[in-house]
Design a protein that fits this description.
Keywords: ATP-binding, Host-virus interaction, Kinase, Magnesium, Nucleotide-binding, Purine salvage, Transferase. The chain is an alpha/beta fold. It has one domain: UDP-N-acetylmuramoyl-L-alanine:D-glutamate ligase (3-Layer(aba) Sandwich), CATH 3.40.1190.20. About 35% of the residues lie in helices and about 25% in strands. The strands form two sheets. It has a nine-stranded mixed β-sheet, with helices on both faces. A five-stranded mixed β-sheet has the order 3-8-7-2-4.
Length: about 350
């Protein structure tokens, strides 16, 4: 494929958040009732924690948000200018400006909706022993409107793309936008992908998630999310391989593509289910002392995976690229990476 064929080939939509990241302690986690390896939406009791983090700990500010992370990593892996686009909502403030600058520098074609009255969303990233917990205060990210998507200059990004990726977190914000994109994908034989994203999405946004499932050609998630999905659907199994197969066999809106389920399990092998069969792919081993934090590991895996999927590569190549990207990211703070990938 010529590089012009990749123009805007991959579109992401999601919640752009500024990560407020710090190594904290167990006492801090207990105080705010935070569990490691989890992702939640901030409640009132969590709101003072962002200030407390910046006073008590060494805080880094990193442009984040699950989908935006994945699209940035895909763009980094592709090294083709203009291959990726992204939409979401930010505030008209210094964090929003910083986000725009960061995403543009990363090579993304960003079309943000800018909310006049709400600050840019933040995500508290609490790290203990390399494991992370995410507490998202969506703010402006929660204000995305389907009217923004329908504007001709934004809908043009949907028309141009051949692959779509939307993290499950966006289900809480604009299910109408997701509906338009998934229906466009189905009608035009394009590839629509989503992520289970968090146990709370599988549990409390089950209905909107279920409306999307028939359209998903690829479903990503981790072992905790897969087990929550299984429990919520009454499947009575904790076996990740069985769950992956069952998700891949749920009904589909069109027969163009079979559904593939891709479940990561931290340091354990990646589980891929398609055609009623499971394959497992080992991840790249990493000595514990090289682990900085797991923030963005799953996002990076998806980004690496998608970078090869848009090239039409076989599934094992997609997984290999996903494992490479997440291995890079967990050795750094947040979802960040060196200037050029070293992936062949």
């Amino acid at each position: 494929m010529a590089s012009s064929d990749f123009d805007g080939i991959l579109l992401g939509m999601g919640n752009p958040l500024l990560d407020v990241s710090a190594v904290v302690d167990q006492e801090f986690l207990n105080k705010y009732d935070i569990k490691l390896n989890n992702a939640i939406l901030a409640e009132d009791k969590h709101l003072p924690m962002y200030d407390e983090m910046s006073k008590k700990f060494n805080v880094e500010y990193i442009a984040g948000g699950a989908t935006q992370n994945s699209i940035k990593v895909a763009q980094w892996m592709l090294q083709i200018p203009g291959a990726t686009s992204y939409m979401g909502s930010i505030g008209k403030d210094k964090y929003g400006e910083a986000m725009k600058k960061d995403a543009t520098a990363a090579g993304l074609n960003v079309h943000y909706y800018e909310d006049e009255s709400t600050p840019t969303g933040t995500c508290g990233v609490c790290v203990v022993g390399g494991e992370r917990s995410l507490i998202a205060n969506l703010s402006a990210a929660n204000c995305y409107k389907v009217e923004h998507l329908k504007k001709p200059e934004n809908w043009a990004l949907v028309e141009k793309a051949k692959f779509y990726y939307i993290a499950g977190f966006f289900l809480t914000v604009s299910p109408e936008s997701i509906q338009l994109v998934r229906e466009h994908a189905a009608a035009n034989n394009k590839v629509f992908t989503m992520n289970l994203s968090a146990p709370f999405i599988c549990e409390f946004f089950k209905d909107v998630q279920e409306k999307c499932l028939p359209y998903m050609d690829y479903v990503f998630g981790n072992e905790t999310e897969a087990r929550t999905f299984s429990r919520v659907h009454g499947w009575e199994t904790d076996d990740v391989e069985q769950i992956a197969i069952k998700i891949s066999q749920l009904p589909k809106a069109t027969g163009t593509y079979k559904r593939t389920t891709v479940i990561t399990q931290g340091a354990d092998p990646v589980v891929v289910a398609e055609d009623g069969k499971v394959k497992k792919y080992p991840v790249i081993p990493l000595p514990k002392e090289n682990l900085v934090d797991t923030n963005g590991a799953g996002d990076a895996f998806v980004g690496g995976f998608l970078s090869q999927l848009v090239h039409g590569k076989a599934i094992e190549e997609c997984v290999r690229a996903g494992c490479y990207a997440s291995n890079v990211v967990i050795q750094r703070s947040g979802c960040t990476y060196p200037e050029k990938p070293d992936f062949n």
